Amino acid sequence: MKIFNTLTRKKEEFVPITPGKISMYVCGPTVYNYIHIGNARPMIVFDTFRRYMEYRGYTVNYVSNFTDVDDKIIKKANEEGVDSLEISTRYIAETRKDMEALNVRPATVHPQATKEIGGMIDMIQTLIDKGHAYVAADGTVYFRTRSFDQYGKLSHKNLDDLRTGERELKVSGEDQKEDPLDFVLWKPKKEGEPSWPSPWCEGRPGWHIECSVMSKKYLAETIDIHAGGEDLIFPHHENEIAQSECTSGKEFAHYWMHNGFLNIDNRKMSKSLGNFFTVREITEKYDPQVLRFFMQTAQYRGPLNFSAELMEQAKQSLDRIRTCGNMLKEALETAPERDLNAEEQSAVDGISEFVKMFEDAMDDDLNTADAITAIFELVRSANVNVKTASGEKAPRKVVESFFNTLEMLAGILGLFVTTEDDAAADPEAEEIEGLIAQRKEAKKNKDFALADKIRDDLLARGIVLEDTREGTKWKRN
Ligand code: AMP
Ligand code: ZN
Q1: Within this chain, do residues 405 and 310 fall inside the same structural domain, yes or no?
Q2: Residues 328 and 360 in one domain
Q3: Residue 284 belongs to what H/E stretch?
Q4: How far is the CA of 259 from the centre of ligand 1 (A)?
Q5: What CATH number is associated with residue 329?
Q6: Contact, 409 vs 377, CB < 8 A?
Q7: Which of 131, 162, 186, 471 shows the greatest Cβ crowding within 10 Å of its Cβ?
């Protein structure tokens, strides 16, 4: 497996610290609103990476934080006249729902900044003791950036160039800094803000320190992989490295993976530019699996442009995979148990070629775009070999081999290959099944008006019912 390492700017062979195990930290969202589909890109990309590495036999310890103390959360809390804890609790729950809809598995641990304040105070104290941080007159603690001679190694920036840039970014409190490059580790409380006691002042942590602390606590001082969107390279990840390496004296992470931006009209999707769609809006319009598939149509490091046309294309491509999945599943029900003829045997033998194509693509820095091409090759072969032109039924062994392989490869991408699996995994499945049961009951009681209303209400939500001999089935339109 080769991974592009931002630290060395090279594709490198992945070698874990402990054979068979991977420790991985992915910077998670700041929880002050519904996440947008740009925030979903790292979630989907690194969830796919995790699934693939597990398929390769690794045990992955995957940690991803929720930043639950931040200016934006405080602002939102003040606007609503509630506690910032209420805001963060609400949006952590909503983010988890979106993740579930996108089939992003929960991390091994999802630590929250506000629950790790003690660890942050300890690390800041160590940095002060070692001369890497200092306390200003008002109790603000700053990291002494120039005390870490490797500062800039991740973003490949030179300290003196940074210095010119920083001058333009003068912010209040700057005059207390020994150097404009120094950054905040701890800051004094302001009216209406959450705060905690500390040896320096009643206050709250700066943003960067939480990830250094959580990565060490839940993984180790040195971990295999640290990841996030490319906007985090500087200053966030650069600062994390400085804090962690100055504390431990050890390398913080061996590999740094960064996803490219999800763009709209070639501009980064972001809350501040206002050019965003929330995951919630998009998954109300489209099947969440289409969004997940769309994100995988490009290799993760490149930019990905979002548009209705591209989503439509993604939907059609995914439908092709599912049509094949449904066809195979149906064929399985009646496939005869018989020995394979030479042609059938060669079709089954050929499947390993598609698996190899898929693995080669994924081994090349998680090239999901090429991995999808391999899945389409498999689909094409399944369509030829199972739906034979002569109408003769393919034997069970053939159908099973195609179905199991399709399910396995798509599963690595977090995709379902039959509309049935998809329905069962739908976050609203339980509610929809409940309504279908009510409709059945209404029909039994000859209350056809109610039965029709239930059907029409579901249709208005894009959910189509189909009455079959085995009962009522449903799918998203
Ligand atoms: P934030 O809540 O802004 O800290 O972002 C959470 C995660 O989403 C980080 O890994 C960001 O790098 C990532 N992110 C934010 N916007 C985008 C975008 N437009 N495209 C890709 N990743 C993004
Ligand atoms: Zn982080």
Answers
A1: yes
A2: yes
A3: helix 279-285
A4: 9
A5: 1.20.120.640
A6: no
A7: 186
pTM: 0.90
Contact 128, 135 (CB under 8 A): yes
Residue 102 Cα to ligand 2 midpoint, Å, equals 22
154, 192: one domain: yes
pLDDT at 423 over 80: no
The finding on whether 216 has its CB within 6 A of some atom of ligand 1 is: no
pLDDT at 388: 64
- Report the residue among 37, 67, 73, 231 best suited for mutation to probe ligand 1: largest number of ligand atoms under 8 A from its CB: 231
Residue 168 pLDDT exceeds 60: no
Measured at the CA of 49, the angle between CA 25 and CA 30, to 5 degrees, comes to 45
pLDDT in tens, 53-75: 999 999 999 999 999 999 999 99
CATH number at residue 225: 3.40.50.620
User: Do 409 and 434 sit in the same domain of this protein?
Assistant: no
List strand residue ranges (DSSP E) for 302-400, in order: 304-305
End of a domain among 201, 230, 259? 259
pLDDT of residue 160: 81
| Same domain assignment for residues 154 and 52 | yes
Does the CB atom of residue 49 touch ligand 1 within 6 A?
A: no
Query: Among 30, 33, 39, which residue has the most ligand 1 atoms within 8 Å of its CB, making it the best to mutate?
Result: 39
Residues 379 and 244 in one domain: no
- b/e map of 189-200 (b: 16 or more CB within 10 Å)? eeeebbebebeb
Tally of domains in the chain: 3
The 10s digit of each residue's pLDDT in 72-82 is: 999 999 999 99
267-322: per-residue pLDDT in tens?
Answer: 999 998 999 999 999 999 999 999 999 999 999 999 999 999 999 999 999 999 99
**Residue 169: is its pLDDT beyond 90?**
no
Ligand with the closest atom to the CA of 33: 1
Asked if residue 30 has its Cβ within 6 Å of ligand 1, the reply is yes
- Using pLDDT thresholds of 50, 70 and 90, give the confidence band for residue 172: low
Residue bearing the CA closest to ligand 1, atom 17: 38
Numbers of helices and strands, H then E, in the chain = 16, 15
**Residue 161 Cα to ligand 1 middle (Å):** 25
42 lines ligand 1 (CB under 6 A): yes
Query: For 108-164, what is the HEC assignment?
Result: CECCEHHHCHHHHHHHHHHHHHCCCEEECCCCCEEECHHHCCCCCCCCCCCHHHHHH
Task: Give the mean model confidence (pLDDT) for residues 109-122.
Answer: 98
User: What range defines the domain where residue 463 resides?
Assistant: 428-476
- Kindly state if the Cβ of 126 falls inside 6 Å of ligand 1: no
DSSP characters over 354-365:
HHHHHHHHHHBT
- Asked whether residue 301 is assigned to any structural domain, the reply reads no
d(CA 220, CA 226): 12
Contact 36, 268 (CB under 8 A): no
